[in-house]
Specification:
It is built from eleven helices and 16 strands. The protein has two domains: 6-118 and 305-328, ornithine cyclodeaminase, domain 1 (2-Layer Sandwich); 124-300, NAD(P)-binding Rossmann-like Domain (Rossmann fold, 3-Layer(aba) Sandwich). β6 (94-100) and β7 (107-112) form a beta hairpin. With 332 residues, the chain is of the alpha/beta class.
Length: 332
């Protein structure tokens, strides 16, 4: 019996095969799939191998079956985090998605997901701005200008034209370099500031995308009508979540698996009854988006492996069509 060969799509090829606009569209499509109930999670939804010092090593494995296209995918990545240095968003950590045919179990592809992960992490949280963002935002604030900050900016630029961008990061040289580079690219003021408060006050959209476990922002800094996008752990003080007019997450149960989120809920700081809705409910109109120019809205995401797999499948199909990638022989 003859089985199909397996296509390996390396990092350098994924850059050519997936655009920011593609990622935005696919992430929105997957939210609609979730609303239809055509996405099936693994049980448990996440397997983790976390080993502390001296290894500081973390393996995460997630799986999903999607009825559309259809495809089954398993996402696996390994990273290092000693509390000071975390390479989860960098090229020196292992990141792959294995795709297979759910009707036969045949392997289809192995896709390097460094690029697709980076853009998915932000696209999934930026897409709901179409419904929850300010009407005509002029000032953008970025807390963190690493992988997530850069790709949040790229995704937001598919929706908006800003007049000013404020940025901060832990290292002065990093934020100054970012400000100079993007001022030149965009032709608008990109201003490096020292603190998250300087970023947030007066901004229309604020993005928190750091690797820190520390609280970075507070609701008192956010003006009426602003949207705060939290891409990571505790970007906005948990005590301030109930102060927002609307709080929207990608998935309640998956967020509850995260220690900081679970602690907030278990301590009664924020309850499910206080949640306005999930992003798939917003995208499909089951819950209203922004209803007032003065609403302060929080969008918080932990990340959906369904979107990672959908992006990997798109890359795989593009690679096949363009004869890109490396063929690995199937077992025979």
């Amino acid at each position: 019996m003859t089985y199909p060969d397996i296509l390996f799509v390396p990092y350098r090829d994924t850059l050519e095969l997936l655009t920011t606009e593609d990622a935005m569209r696919i992430c929105e499509d997957v939210y609609r799939m979730h609303a239809k109930g055509s996405v099936h999670w693994s049980k448990p939804p996440s397997f983790k191998l976390d080993v502390s010092a001296p290894f500081n090593n973390h393996w995460h494995v997630k799986g999903v079956l999607m009825e559309e296209p259809p495809v089954t995918g398993v996402r696996l990545y390994n990273h290092y985090d000693d509390g000071d240095y975390n390479n989860v968003g960098y090229l020196d950590c292992a990141r792959y998605i294995m795709l297979s045919d759910p009707m036969k179990g045949h392997a289809l592809a192995i896709v390097d997901e460094h690029w697709s992960y980076a853009v998915r992490s932000t696209a999934s949280a930026i897409v709901p701005c179409k419904w929850l963002g300010p009407k005509n935002p002029k000032i953008l604030g970025l807390v963190g200008v690493g992988t997530m900050g850069i790709n949040a900016l790229r995704c937001l630029l598919t929706l908006y034209t800003f007049e000013e961008i404020r940025v901060t990061s832990r290292r002065a040289e990093t934020r100054e370099r970012f400000a100079t580079e993007w001022s030149d690219k965009l032709g608008i003021p990109v201003i490096a500031v020292e603190s998250p408060e300087q970023v947030a006050r007066g901004a229309d959209i604020i993005v928190g995308g750091t690797t820190s476990n520390e609280i970075n922002c507070h609701a008192e800094w956010l003006k009426p009508g602003s949207t705060f996008i939290s891409l990571a752990r505790r970007e906005l003080d948990p005590a301030d979540w109930p102060k927002m007019d609307k709080v929207v997450v990608d998935d309640w149960d998956l967020n509850y698996l995260q220690p900081n989120f679970r602690r907030m809920v278990d301590d009664g700081v924020f309850t499910r009854d206080q949640l306005h809705g999930t992003i798939d409910e917003i995208v499909t109109g089951q819950k209203p988006g922004r209803e007032s120019d003065d609403e302060r809205i929080l969008i918080h995401t932990t990340g959906l492996v369904s979107q990672d797999v959908a992006l990997a499948h798109f890359i795989y199909e593009q690679a096949k069509a363009r004869n890109i990638g490396i063929t690995l022989p199937a077992a025979r």
